[in-house]
Amino acid sequence: MSSAVATTQEPPAGFNRAKRRWARGFLWATSAFLLLDKPLLSLSTSACAVYAMHGGKWLSHKNFKWMSASVISFAVSLYAVAMWTESEFVDEDRAYELKATLAMKHRAAEIVWGGMLLMALCLTIKEKIDRAATATAEAVAATAEAVEKVSRALAEDGNGKAKIKSG
């Protein structure tokens, strides 16, 4: 007789990494749409980022960072859509200052958060480049050390065609 209760399994390796990668992709689009003054598109992409992160491990600091960025992006996009919509309903002839203030508020929120989000995303790329450069430098140093050891061994044994003199 089989049990009707589903057993919970650990997610496969890379599960949270894949969620973060999807969320970062949506956040790249969100920052672009915010900076390009497309609040409806930024709202939808930030909602996709929140959805992409919702099933991940909450106690992970990496997941928490990107979930926070996704939620903040959604809130800023929702605020921008609300201000943009309200400014469209205001009569420009009767209340020009109100219309301009609402438009300025939504645009300022888009530029400030879009720029901050873009900077955070660019920093993640910089970190990956720095890690790759460090790994490459370590590999080159290890290769140089190995070549030096082989060269010394050949010079000391005299098995090489030409002896290598070391300082």
What does this 3D model show about the protein?
By secondary structure, the protein is mainly alpha-helical. The chain has four helices and no strands. The protein has helices at residues 15-35, 39-53, 61-89, 96-157. Helix 1 packs parallel to helix 3 (61-89), helix 1 (15-35) packs across helix 4 (96-157) and helix 2 (39-53) packs antiparallel against helix 3 (61-89). The longest helix has 62 residues, at 96-157. The protein is elongated.
* Proportion of helical residues: over 70%
Radius of gyration: 27 Å
SSE topology string: HHHH
CA-to-CA gap between the ends?
A: 79 Å
* Biggest pleated sheet: none
Detail the poorly predicted runs.
none
- List the total number of helices: 4
Which percent band covers the strand fraction? under 5%
Mean pLDDT: 84
Q: How would you name the oligomeric state of the polypeptide chains in this document?
A: single chain
**Can you tell me the overall shape?**
elongated
Tell me the number of strands: 0
Backbone structural class? mainly alpha
Kindly summarize this structure in a few lines:
The chain contains 4 helices and no strands. It has 167 residues and is mostly helical.
Features:
167 residues; mainly alpha; 4 helices; 0% strand
What are the SSEs and their pairings?
Blueprint: H1 15-35, H2 39-53, H3 61-89, H4 96-157
